[in-house]
Amino acid sequence: MNDIRKYRPGEAASSKVSEERDEFERDYARLIQSPTFRRLQGKSQVFGAGSGDYYRTRLTHSLEVAQIAREVAKRLERTNPFLQKREHPGLIIDPTVVECASIAHDFGHPPFGHKGEEVLNHILLKDHGLKYEGNAQNFRILMFLEKRAGSESGLDLTSAVLLGINKYPFLIEEESRLKGVYGSEWDIIRELRAEWKMPEGCSTLEAQLMDLCDDIAYSTHDIEDGIRAGKIQMNATFFEDQRLIRHLVMEILNDPNKHKFGWEQVDIELMVRQVLSDYLEQWEQIFAECNREESRTRREMKARWVSSFASCLDIIDDPDRGWKKVALVKDGAEDMNLLRTMEILKKLAWVTLIKDFRVLRLQKRSEIIVERLWYSFIDQDKGQWIIPPDWIDSYERRKGNWSWPRFVADYISGMTDAYAEKVYAELFASKSGSIYEMD
């Protein structure tokens, strides 16, 4: 069982193996020492990277997801006897694997958050019939773009970590598929899944746990940032605003994944009002406990909500798929009410932060930057002279399986927010940079 989980599909059989470290610990070291991991510090979570010292970036978000996931994994190992049986490679939870998956889950995000992802996908699809998607790009980075000593392509991660990152076990090129894995990496992922005898469309328990911990972080930490920024105002006027409630209801109804939450079982508007009312009431109670110190109250609110969600995570049967499911659980069954509460808090963060008109103005600027960078590079005869030589060298060595449009998408998506703005300024703004700056 260990052999199949620790198999490295990209690594040469002759590679030296350290006897001092576990294979998954080697994966962890490869991930946190990779340039892609470091670049996450310069990529937006909600507010633009560099907006302030307080706000989260993709790096701090990923570390927080990893911390939550590892702690939950340790608890589940202790409290679920069936995990000790190790009956199936996909029905095991190893805390280090879950931590690795959490560290790497946002590697594929381009600069400027979801707006950058949206722009790249639109241009690639319209002009070249290709897709761009952050989860798929994760695997392109981990299995192709990243380099390490002794390997020509990728980080050569273990099967368990690769499948632990694979939230969407599908070929993204399939018609109408919005999330998945690019065909170039899917062949290997599909072979691993077949070797593991994974049920079609099902993720490993480790991937499911990472995904839910990402949701926990999103629904708690982003709201903390929003309160700190003044976008979420902790008073009745804000929380009872009819426009806010209407926007939250519309976000729920327009969500393509709304079927997961059983919204037909409740009055959506009534539940939204109740969750907002309870949230404000809890804030006021903790505010009094914290001697009316807002910063302490923010941190305590976040901590309590993380704890309330994480402590309810457990493993139950998924009879529809003949598999197991990591879920928010109450009395042995999925706690749909708590799941809907988490979703309302996620929508609150989205509506108040991402949909804020000032943020949308910044996103429009981001859209212009990504588009103009794209059209500067996409003509290969001209673009090759304004892309760093090491990138061009990599392309020349591997152009047999690397089309120029995908290459340009890879280059732009690897940029931090600040680097994208720097290159844009060099090409289009009346700002002169030094030729001695190192890219």
From TrEMBL:
GO terms for molecular function: dGTPase activity. One of its GO terms (biological process) is dGTP catabolic process. Signal peptide: none annotated. Keywords: Hydrolase. Residues 58-219 form the HD domain. Transmembrane segments: none annotated. This is dGTP triphosphohydrolase.
